[in-house]
Write a structure and sequence with these properties.
This protein has 138 residues and is an alpha+beta fold. Helix content is 24%, strand content 20%. It has one domain.
């Protein structure tokens, strides 16, 4: 016999009205989609952490640090691969700043929305890896 309450599950409408309408893993998932094949995401820890893997040996881990910044780690404790020939001085997009662990989205807030955060994250990863920006479709 279950001792759990039998209340009705939350609806999508209720979830969209919550304080946190999306998780870090959602940002990573959409960023992987924007980066295209072969990028994939691996969400972990209740969606608070997610790791992107792609055409490089280096993986990119999305998380929120102790300062409440959205961080994309790729070189914490030298976890990046020296076999990846990334630019030495990448030109990061506005709002993205280098840090010891990788980069962080310095002005990012939930209010920016999932799409904008994912686009900025994908742009940061393109800059870090030296990948070209996507072409505008006409």
């Amino acid at each position: 016999m279950s001792m759990l309450p039998t209340a009705h599950p939350a609806t999508a409408d209720q979830a969209s009205q919550s304080k946190y309408p999306f998780a870090v893993a959602d940002v990573a998932r959409v960023a992987a989609q924007l980066l295209g094949a072969p990028w994939t995401d691996d969400p972990q820890h209740w969606g608070t952490v997610s790791t992107l893997s792609g055409p490089h040996e280096t993986d990119f881990t999305f998380l929120v640090d102790g300062d409440d910044d959205l961080v994309i780690e790729f070189r914490y404790n030298l976890r990046y691969s020296v076999n990846d020939e990334f630019p030495a001085e990448p030109e990061l997009p506005d709002g993205v700043t280098a840090c010891d662990a990788g980069v962080y989205l310095e002005t990012a807030t939930m209010g920016d929305g999932l799409d904008k955060l994912a686009e900025l994250s994908a742009a940061a990863i393109r800059a870090i890896t030296g990948a070209p920006a996507p072409r505008e479709q006409s």
